[in-house]
Amino acid sequence: MREWAPQSWRSKPAAQQPAYPSAEELDRAVDELHRLPPLVTSWEIDALKAQLAGCAAGTRFLLQGGDCAERFADCTSDVITSKLKILLQMSLVLVQGGERPVTRVGRFAGQYAKPRSEDFETRDGVTLPSFRGDSVNRSGFTLEERTPDPHLLLRAYERSALTLNFIRALIRSGFADLHHPENWDLAFARHSPLAAEYAAIAKRVSGSLQFMENILGVQNGEMRWVDFFSSHEALQLHYEEAQTRQVPSHTGWYNLSTHFPWIGMRTLQLDGAHVEYFRGIVNPIGIKVGPGFTKDLVARLLDVLHPHNEPGRLTLIHRLGNKGVGDTLPKLIDTVRATGKTVVWCCDPMHGNTIATSDGTKTRHFDDIVGELEQAFAIHRATGSHLGGVHIELTGEDVTECLGGARNLSDTDLKRAYRSEVDPRLNYEQALEVAMRIGRLMAE
Ligand code: PEP
Ligand code: CO
Question: Domain of 91?
C-alpha cells in the first residue's frame, strides 16, 4: 500500500471543496483547529466499531438520523433536546419491534457542510457561489455572505463541542434513562394520531425492564442510560485532517472530530481525495452508494477502504430510491458477497426519493420512504443477507417538509412550516411513524 498521512489527500483531486480566497487565512484556521482538543475519544470510537460489528452480524440494529444540515442558529437547548427525544423514541420502538439492542448515531455535532450540484447560483442576473452550509459560507445572497470563510470552520468546531457537551451532560444526568421514557415526550405530540400506539410500546419496554430487574436481578449501566454517537459527512477535508490524531496506547490514526464519518455519494471517487483520506483512519466509516455505482467500483472501494475485513469497519449506506432499489440492491448484495467482505448494510430511504412539487419545493413522499424500506428489508432477507440499519433525515420539530404520513400532508401543507434550507426532513410524527413501520418489518 502507498504511504498515508493525514494530509496525503491533498495530492488528489478533491471534489466539493470551497474556493477560499486566502490560503494563509485557511492555514491559520486549520492550525488553530489542530491545536484544539478532540471532540470525541478513541475509546468511544472503538466502542462504536464493536457495536457496528454487531449490526453487521445481525445482533444489533443501527439507527442513524438527524438533519440534512445542522445550522449554527439551531445550536439551542430546544432543538438539541427535541432531536434526542425523537431518536430515543424511535430507538425504543425499534428495540421493541426488533428485539435486539439499537445503536443510536446522530447526524449531529459536525454536520455543517453540504455538497452542491451547482457551484454557483444565479438570481435576477446576479451569479454568486452556492451556499455550502454554515461551516463554509452564509446563506444570504450577497458576495460577502457567499464568499467561503475559513473562520467558519472554527465556529463549526465550537458549535459541535457545545452540542456534544450538552448531549453528554443530559445523558449522564438521567435524560436518557430507559425507566423514564416520559422525559422524552414532546408537548405538541400529545394529540398525535400515533400517541396511543407509542405509549403502549413505551409501557411494554418499561414492563420488560422491570421484569429483568425484579425477577432476574439484572441491573447494569446499559439499562439505566443509553449512549449516543455522533456522525457527519466528512466533506471538508481540512477540518477532518486537523482533528486526525494518534492516541497513546492505541494504534493508527483516529479522526477525533466525530465517531462515525461518512463519504457522501458525490465525493466517493476511487482516486479522489476523500477516499484517500478515509483509507488511513481507523474509525468505523460509512459510504453512500447510489444507483449509478458499477460492480467494479464497489469492489475496488471495498479493497481500498475495507482491506482487512475488520468487523464493524465499513457501513454501506445504500440510497437507491423506491423505484430503483428492487433492481439495483440484489446486484449490489451479490457484488459485495463476491468480495468475501462483511459490511453493515444500512438503508437511506431519503436521498433516492427527493422530488420537486409544481412550484419547485424539494420534498419526499412518506410512501416512497416506507416503500424503499419495505423492499430493502425483503430483498436482504430473500438473498440471505440482512439489513443492519437505517439512515434517516428527520427533526424533532413540527415542520412540514415531507408529504404524506398519518396526517397526510399535501403540497399546500408544505408552505406552513418548511424550514430546511437543504433536504426535506421527516417531522416528529412522520419519524415516529417510520420507526413503527421499521419495528414491524424487523419483527417479521
Ligand atoms: C446527505 O446525506 O445529506 C447527502 C447529501 O446524501 P448523499 O451523499 O447520499 O446524496
Ligand atoms: Co440530505
Answer: 8-443
Q: What is the pLDDT of residues 397-426, one digit of tens each?
A: 889 999 999 889 999 999 999 999 889 999
Indicate which ligand has the atom closest to the C-alpha of 349: 1
**Rounded distance from Cα 338 to ligand 2 centre (Å):** 30
Cβ(347) to ligand 1 under 6 A? Answer: no
CATH of the domain at 385: 3.20.20.70
Q: Which of 70, 232, 265 to mutate to test the pocket of ligand 1 (most atoms within 8 A of CB)?
A: 265
Find out whether 92 and 205 touch, Cβ atoms under 8 Å: yes
How far is 274 from 122, CA to CA, in rounded Å?
29
Q: Rounded CA gap, 374 and 186, in Å?
A: 28
Is residue 68 in contact with ligand 1, taking CB distance under 6 Å? yes
d(CA 308, CA 99): 31
Length of the chain equals: 444
Note whether residue 391 is domain-resident: yes
Q: Give the pLDDT confidence of 259-301 residue by residue, as tens digits.
A: 999 999 999 999 999 999 999 999 999 999 999 999 999 999 9
Question: In this structure, which residue's CA is closest to atom 1 in ligand 1?
Answer: 68
Q: For residue 86, how many other CB atoms are within 10 A of its CB?
A: 26
Number of structural domains the chain divides into:
1
**In this structure, what DSSP letter does residue 164 have?**
H
| 3 in a structural domain | no
120 within a domain of the structure (yes/no): yes
Q: Which pTM was predicted?
A: 0.95
DSSP state of 158: H
Q: Provide the grid cell at 92.
A: 425504543
Find the 389 Cα to ligand 2 centroid distance in Å. Answer: 17
Strand spans (E) along 144-281: 228-233, 244-246, 253-255, 260-263
From residue 369, how far is each of 137, 192, 331, 349, 436 by CA, in Å? Answer: 31, 20, 21, 5, 13
Render 36-59 in DSSP notation, one character per residue: SPPSS-HHHHHHHHHHHHHHHHTS
The DSSP secondary structure of 261-277, one letter per residue, reads EEE-GGG--TTSHHHHH
- Residue 2 domain-assigned? no
